[in-house]
Amino acid sequence: MRNLTGFCFCSIIGIAPLMWLAAIPQFPVIAALLAASLCIAFIPHRLARYVAFSLLCFCWALINAKESLAPFEKWTGKPVTVEAVMDRSDGKENHELRMVSLEGLRVFPPVGIRVRGEYFPNSTCAGQRWRMKVHLRPVHGQLNVGGFDSQRYALAQHQPLSARIISAQSVTGSCDLRARWLAHVTAATQSLPYQGIILALAFGERAGMSDEQKNLLRQTGTAHLMAISGMHISLAAMVGWLVARLAQLSFPAHRIHFRLPLIASVIAAGIYTWLAGGNPPAIRAFIGVMIWLLLRLKGRNWSGWEVWLCCISGILIYDPLTVLSDSFWLSAMAVAALIFWYQWMPLPRSLKAAKGFYRYPLALLHLQIGIMFLLMPLQILIFHGMSLSALIANLFAVPLISFAVVPALLAGLVITDLPWAGEYLWWGVDRLLALLFKALSLLPEGWLDVDKRFQVLSLSGWLVVIIHRLALWRSSCLSIMALMVSLVMPTLRTEEKDDSWQVTMLDVGHGLAIAIVRQGKVFLYDTGNAWPDGDVGQQIIIPWLRWHHLSLEQVVISHEHLDHRGGLPSLQRAWPALKIRSPLRWEGHHSCFQGDQWQWQGLQFTVQWPPAQPAMKGNNGSCVVMVSDGHFRILFTGDVEAEAELAMLKRRWGILHADIIQVPHHGSRTSSSAPLLRAVAGSAALSSTSRYNAWHLPSAKVVQRYQSQGYKWYDTAHSGQLTIDINSDKWQINSFRAQISPRWYHQWFGVSRDNG
């Protein structure tokens, strides 16, 4: 079977580049690569066949990526009539659908559509078919270094489009069997405190989980237990296997065969996958179970690594875009870590031979230690932190969920309609969950934010295991010490004192947040927007600062509008001693009026507007600040409008000259007057704007005005995060999409002018 594992490895090598490609080549290039792979395949050598298969899988990945981008070019930019099947709905304003036809033509495979903040004319549930006139929009996400990559996530989930509904008509109003089952279980558990957790475990519906429950699961590192994933599908397969084995006890000996329990396990896994609504993690786990079954049916004793390699290969060949999924790599690496751990650090023989009950918790502790240390690199990369209480929490949470809650829950799904039995079983599941959450709440808050300096050090878990098992500390002691020092050094590195500094305009959607960074310290100009259950400070600014190991010292709030001050409360909670400047005259705020000057980290700050008297509010009261290091100058303008711009220019024409200007009021036609642009006489203009904003900003006329004055235009909607690297009189602007992380899944999709 060496050839099979060799081809599996080649398929992974062929599909993996999809994570790093800057652009997907056109079909003629793909066709040429395909022809080359076929030619190489005729070379009579095993290595040639491996190369040909890798190239073939690479072409398959490119074709899938190309097809995932096709809807952006074909269907966006104008209203279209579609038919779609409802996959998920909260019954209110958030829905997920599969588009099966467009303008009367069948769409295959169906394309996922997300609808947010839209109400349908009738009640909604999974299985309904709707005919709708919609304006389809390509996926677009806020892109910041170290932030959540929503564009990559949407493509991995096969939901590349969002829809704004113009009209909708129900074609079939009946719900599918799963939706009816979900409604039935929801009614049966409506009085239970942990109904949201029950529905998450049974159907993958997490909308009912409270914010407190989600936060507790995150703090204790047990969130993975409350989403239907590989572990839960495997448990369902195990239950199916046990049921079949028990049934075989009544069979005559000649009727007992090992295939029946295997087939039963796959059927049980398939049913649970269907209950989960066919979400991608569940489908991937089911494919893994199917591959495991096929390998077992071969009758050969496969090693753990061979099974792992075949499963990863099969999943990626089935859906190459899975390579973009963080949850897939977490699951894959968790299994790889277990195999590695038990091969290189097996349980001590004395523990294996022990007959007392105590060996089971010790064996579970041994497993959790391996998972914690070996998954640390991926956890830090994806979540930018780790839970210190996860080790203890999972010691009791994993067995409780695996051997009590999930089996009881599966039984409850079957006997819900039985008088008394179903009611008491759901009550028992709820009490088990209450016990779990009570125990979790007793643990201290364990979440630790970790910055990017620790990424290299997090690999030490793997290295320590290898060094210990191979006894390298005996023969290469000095080399091992040098290696460990090299891992620790990045965490001890301090900011060098030099003339360089950075200005970063974060991609915060509609709003403004600009970070001035020097020697590990940050001065922030505005703090972005806020909404009922969050704000930019909590969601974007604080994670960005902590990931880059930066300390926030001062903030300027340009004016009182929410899209410029929304994140301030979260920042004040994180840094209570934060110094705030503004023209608002609020308690605790230092002044930010025309003529004010101060220095910070060797940079000169001069306030150009507004005057202290008369008091001004709104956009025209924005605090306009010039920042300079003696060579480079940048002007921050907030939302100042034309009237205030002209007043600011009186007798101050030469003072406003700058290399770069932050575009006032997000590029609105009420700002950026021609006299201001001529007075600044800069080289580049940076605008903080959001795609699909209700005001169609930036105005095309304003963009043209800047370009006609010789400015190079940048905006966060097109570029993502914008960073200016400054060193004396040399400076350079780097955008997320073009320079920082140029990936095919990071591009601006659809019509280039579409920003409304």
The tally of beta strands, per DSSP, is 24
For the largest sheet, list the strands in their spatial order.
15-14-13-10-9-8-23-24
Tally of alpha and pi helices: 28
Our measurement of the CA-to-CA distance between the termini, rounded to an integer number of angstroms, reads 56 Å
The main sheet comes to: 8 strands, mixed
State the domain count.
5
Reported by name, the CATH topology of the largest domain is: Metallo-beta-lactamase, Chain A
Give the structure's gist in a few sentences:
The chain is α/β, with parallel strands linked by helices and 756 residues long. The chain is built from 28 helices and 24 strands.
Explain this structure:
This protein is of the alpha/beta class and 756 residues long. It has five domains: 2-72, no CATH class; 75-175, Beta Barrel (OB fold (Dihydrolipoamide Acetyltransferase, E2P)); 182-349 and 389-451, no CATH class; 454-492, no CATH class; 500-746, 4-Layer Sandwich (Metallo-beta-lactamase, Chain A). It is built from 28 helices and 24 strands. An eight-stranded mixed β-sheet has the order 15-14-13-10-9-8-23-24. Strands 16-17-18-19-20-21-22 form a seven-stranded mixed β-sheet. A five-stranded mixed β-barrel has the order 1-2-3-5-4. Helix 2 (27-41) runs antiparallel to helix 3 (46-74), helix 8 packs across helix 10 and helix 21 packs across helix 23. The chain is globular, with a radius of gyration of 29 Å. The model has no long low-confidence stretch (mean pLDDT 90).
